[in-house]
Amino acid sequence: MGLSRRRSFFVVSGFIIAHIASKGKIQPASFLTRRFFRIYPLYWIFCGLAVYLQLYYGYNLGGGDLGMSEIIKSFSIFPLENHPPYAVGWTLEHEIIFYLLSAIILYFSRLRTLIITLALLGGIGMALPILINQGTLPPFWDYHLLSATHINFLTGILIYKNQDRLLKFKSAGPLLASIIVFLIWENMLGWPNSSWNTLITTLGTSICSALLIMAFLNSEKLNASNTNSFWHSRYTKFMIAIGNASFSLYLVHWVLFMELGRNKWKIEFELPDHWAENYRIAITVATLLLAFIMYKLIETPLISLGHRIAKRLEK
């Protein structure tokens, strides 16, 4: 379940890049500047915290042994074979590769070229574990270039390009279908052997995420004409707020929700299940609140700074 949530961010990123590309030709310098200020400064806070806790207290939030090379690569979000010091940073490594590919391809060509490139790279990435397991290919490190996650990014782009055609499916159907696909995908893991898990997980998360995005978009569009409806006035605004703070939420959830969750309280303080669950709920609420605060006080000013610098580069 955790893996599916993280891969859902890849689908959303693909959707956002397609929206940006629809506005005209991408200028690599300004585009990458905006992405830099959107991701790096906030991630440095958590990566620095993880490095400090591991080096001085032996408290591990994700990575293995830390050397100077690993620390430098982690702060630069350079692709690592193992998890970075702050575990969720592995997804940002894939995001950076996707942004670089998008910046280069969309500057020299069109969105169609990016779609073909992602399909080829992602297709190879899904097949590699199977071929390596069969002995057809030896194991090798590809720096996430031949990664199955490109299919997740591709899914987001395709949803954006076809969102008007998908409106006829409304919202209830895609929502129900996402649940069915999730159950099928979860029960297929390990079949016929673990080397197929990458392919199954990639397709499962892509389809589930696409259906959920479709359900939300269709609901918003179908109810947009009624500005006084509950959906439009409350739920949509809440979901937009969650979306705005999603990066902060993603970064902070690991150290709070995962490290201070139910099992942590239950084991260390010998609490009964019902009390431990109350603490878990409290941590969930605290995670949301902290994410919103970080978005307002840290992330928003950094994004604004990135936009100002990017506009200067465009002149």
Would you kindly provide a written description of the structure presented here, covering whatever features stand out?
The chain is mostly helical. Helices cover 75% and strands 0% of the residues. The chain contains twelve helices and no strands. Helix 1 crosses helix 6. The longest helix is centred in the last third of the chain and has 42 residues. The chain is globular, with a radius of gyration of 21 Å. It starts with a helix and ends with a helix. The mean pLDDT is 84.
Give a quick set of tags describing it.
315 residues, mainly alpha, 12 helices
Structural class label: mainly alpha
Work out the helix count: 12
- What do the pLDDT scores average to? 84
What share of residues are in beta strands? under 5%
How is the quaternary structure best described? single chain
Low-confidence sequence ranges: none
| Helix share bin | over 70%
Number of strands: 0
Structural shape: globular
Largest sheet: none
Q: What is the string of SSEs from the N terminus onward? A: HHHHHHHHHHHH
How much is the radius of gyration in Å? 21 Å
Distance between the termini: 45 Å
Q: Helices, strands, pairings?
A:
Blueprint: H1 2-21, H2 28-57, H3 68-75, H4 89-108, H5 111-133, H6 149-161, H7 172-188, H8 197-223, H9 230-244, H10 246-258, H11 262-269, H12 273-314
Helix pairs in contact: 1-4, 1-6, 1-8, 2-4, 2-10, 2-12, 5-6, 6-8, 7-8, 10-12, 11-12
